[in-house]
Amino acid sequence: MTENTSNTTAIIEKTVFPILFALSFSHLLNDTIQSLIPAIYPIIKTSYHLSFSQIGLITLTFQLAASLLQPFVGLYTDKKPQPYSLAVGMGFTLIGLISLSQATHFYTILLSVCFIGIGSSIFHPEASRMAHAASGGKRGLAQSVFQLGGNAGSSLGPLLAAWIIVPYGQFSVIWFSVIALLAIIILSYVGRWYKGFMLSRSKKINIQSVVNQFSKGKVIFSVCILLLLIFSKYFYMASLTNYFTFYLIDKFHVSVQTSQVYLFVFLFSVAAGTLLGGPIGDKIGRKYVIWASILGTAPFALLLPHANLFWVGVLIVPIGMILASAFSAILVYAQELIPGKVGLVAGLFFGFAFGMGGIGSALLGKLADSTSIEYVFNVCAFLPLIGLLTGFLPNIETKKK
């Protein structure tokens, strides 16, 4: 494969951990803000007398705004990297936060979450590219560190909502604008490093690259399987992230704050499991990690709808940890499957993941309205079985030239 000076698939000699940690922490801040959206659903559902379908529509609006732009952002930045785009994207998130705190109507809420989604769509592809650039060849580790921050942030949202938003109301969302401002400062620093990295690559070309040994048809087939696996993971994640609190309240009659604590336990388990997939994939192969992380969730997922409250609290831990290890492995596998398109692949898979989460939330909300929230969890328990498709993926060997 021919490499040019602007291609950030180049591998630098050493892993730049300060940049990886800065990106991971920024991801934590970004996803903390995002996770406030589902965390406040019980509040706004009561305040605005919303149906489950309307709750699903809020998630759909956010997820589509966060997903549709991502492949285009990634495709553009593959050709013209934008070091400071992350700070700009966080600016959109800041506008959305302020608007959400002031929202007085359902449609104002939709507009607010749309702005937050746009910020996310700008953030993820280029941040993933920068993590790739700072990886020093340890791509799985770099993506896992990056994803760890995001999942840790997602787990914090419900807890912060229980401590701050539930007691103080919707307007308290504006306090989280401080988080967005902090992220803008950090991402400006990362942007300066990345600009210097790009300049250094234009002067020194010492490149190792992944060679793709598969036909175009095989690549397309494999990408389709990976997208089906993303569908399985994020439809199931949508049921837990957006409706788990309602499930606990409806079935076990717990308080809103108690349900948020259970959601935190699940999302914290997701964060804890995130760091495993990438490094293990670097050592034993990403296909095996993908296989174990999605299909391995199935036994626990099938038991969850039939468990009492105690065992629900136990089961959500392995479900979160095992399922979380999939995404980093899937993303790096796809980047090695399609060399030289780091931004495009990141945008496609992050975007598809967000889109599936949004569509899943909307459809599951509609299903909950027409049946029951408990029925939704019984149906979703079978989704991890789609992990059987991993067996059709080819084994990828990383070759250097």
Layout of helices and strands:
Layout: H1 17-39, H2 41-47, H3 52-67, H4 70-79, H5 85-102, H6 106-133, H7 139-168, H8 177-203, H9 216-252, H10 256-284, H11 286-295, H12 298-303, H13 309-324, H14 326-337, H15 342-370, H16 373-380
Helix pairs in contact: 1-6, 1-7, 1-8, 3-6, 3-15, 4-6, 4-15, 5-6, 5-8, 6-7, 6-15, 7-10, 7-14, 9-10, 9-14, 9-15, 9-16, 10-11, 10-13, 10-14, 11-14, 15-16
Number of extended strands: 0
What is the number of helical segments per DSSP (H or I, 4+ residues)? 16
Average pLDDT, all residues: 83
Largest sheet entry: none
Provide the structure class: mainly alpha
Strand content range: under 5%
Distance between the termini: 9 Å
Helix content: over 70%
Topology order in helix (H) and strand (E) letters: HHHHHHHHHHHHHHHH
- Over the alpha carbons, how many angstroms does the gyration radius reach? 20 Å
How would you sum up the global shape? Answer: globular
Give start-end ranges of low-pLDDT stretches.
1-12, 205-210
Describe this structure in words.
This protein has 401 residues and is mostly helical. Helices cover 76% and strands 0% of the residues. The protein has 16 helices and no strands. Helix 4 (70-79) runs parallel beside helix 6 and helix 10 (256-284) packs across helix 14 (326-337). The longest helix has 37 residues, at 216-252.
Offer a quick outline of the entry.
By secondary structure, this protein is mainly α. It has helices at 17-39, 41-47, 52-67, 70-79, 85-102, 106-133, 139-168, 177-203, 216-252, 256-284, 286-295, 298-303, 309-324, 326-337, 342-370, 373-380.
